[in-house]
Amino acid sequence: MTPPQRQRRTPGQGTPAQPAAPARKEGEGGNPERLYVVAGPDGERADIDLVTLIVARSPDLPPSATPEQAALLRLCVAPLSVAELSAYLSLPFSVVTVLITELLTAELVQARSPIVRKALPDRSLLEAVMHGLQRL
Amino acid sequence: MDFNGSDTIPGPRAEDQLPHTAQSAVKIVIVGGFGVGKTTMVGSVSEIKPLTTEETMTQAGIGVDDNYGSASKTATTVAMDFGRIRITDELVLYLFGTPGQERFWFLWNGLFEGALGAVVLVDTRRLEVSFDVMGRLEERGVPFVVAVNSFPDAPRYPVADLRAALDLSEVIPIVECDVRRRASSRDVLMTLMRFLHSLAMTGSLT
Fold it and tell me: What keywords does the record list, in alphabetical order (chain B) (predicted)?
């Protein structure tokens, strides 16, 4: 019995000019109305990844916090990824990134950036992950 | 959601909270065709109950969709399941796996960018449903290993035949697994990590 046959692709091949590739800015294309309501009018988003860890700088809520901001601040009294915040708040990832950007600007939260894959991955990082997986 | 009652929004259970020493995270993406067991794999190795995040893709973001160019703006919600493994007190690993509609994953800004690598889950009964996603990973230069989820009634091919059918170079690992079992899923992740380590040693993707 012969399995179906695939053909290998190479980096940069195929899918010409992905219109989605460049990061969209707030207010360009897309569907800005809903984001505007939740996140306010001005809008550059910080460089936030799904696995950026967010932690509140203080356990106290500022009186000026909106309900959405307060909910987010309560969740990240301990470090929590943006993906988890999105899940617990039931808000799309992009909406959460806008909320976080506001809180970063107001210095109410701290963002701990993920370690991203580089052209040459960090061997000691990979070894640490392997060591951690072995304990599972 | 009504955020005015936001003090009632459930967060992580106390035992699921990360320590304050958690400094950074890494991610691995589990991909494959519909129904090959991606969500099962995330659930079997995650230390937390898997969660779901979502993103709204608008027409501008979808681009390649059938109605591209039409005047109406359509939005599609893409959901993704993920789990978490604490590696050390400083380092956390996140695993993302998504049900269906794989063409949208690659439009999710930041999902594959920065990921350490990917696991492509395949089902030998429907090998071809994983072809497109492998090609997309290759185009983006995301390193991956292939894990064959062993369904009882699936045809079994020698690894050499699978490698030829999938047109994979000799260096890319192909392993069998049963994603319902934690140890088996863990071994797949270990295979990926060893592969990434070997790439780091040789400094090459091919």
Answer: Receptor
Could you give the CA distance from residue B33 to residue B159 in angstroms, rounded to a whole number?
Answer: 20
Contact B56 A10 (CB under 8 A): no
For the sheet containing A80-81, what is the strand order? A80-81, A53-56, A109-112
Q: Which of A80, A90, A115 sits opposite B24 (nearest CB)?
A: A115
Closest residue of chain A to B192, computed from CA coordinates: A130
The percent helix, strand, coil of chain A (3-state, each to 5) is 35, 5, 55
Closest partner CB to B165 (pick from A6, A121, A126): A6
CATH number at residue A74: 1.10.10
Compare all CA atoms of chain A with the CA of B114 and give the residue at the minimum distance.
A116
Residue B98 sits in a domain whose CATH number is 3.40.50.300
CB contact under 8 A, B138 and A10: yes
Tally: H helices and E strands in chain A: 5, 3
Range of the domain at A106: 42-112
Which domain covers residue B25, as residue numbers?
21-202
> What is the pTM for the complete model shown?
0.84
Q: What is the pLDDT of residues A40-56, one digit of tens each?
A: 444 445 589 999 999 99
- Average pLDDT (A82-100) is 95
Checking if the pLDDT of A116 tops 80, the result is: no
**Is there a domain that residue B126 lies in?**
yes
pLDDT average, residue stretch B80-96: 95
Residues 6+ apart with CB under 8 A from B161: A2, A3
Pick A94's closest partner by Cβ from B55, B165, B194. B55
Number of domains in chain B: 1
Tokens of B153: 């009634």
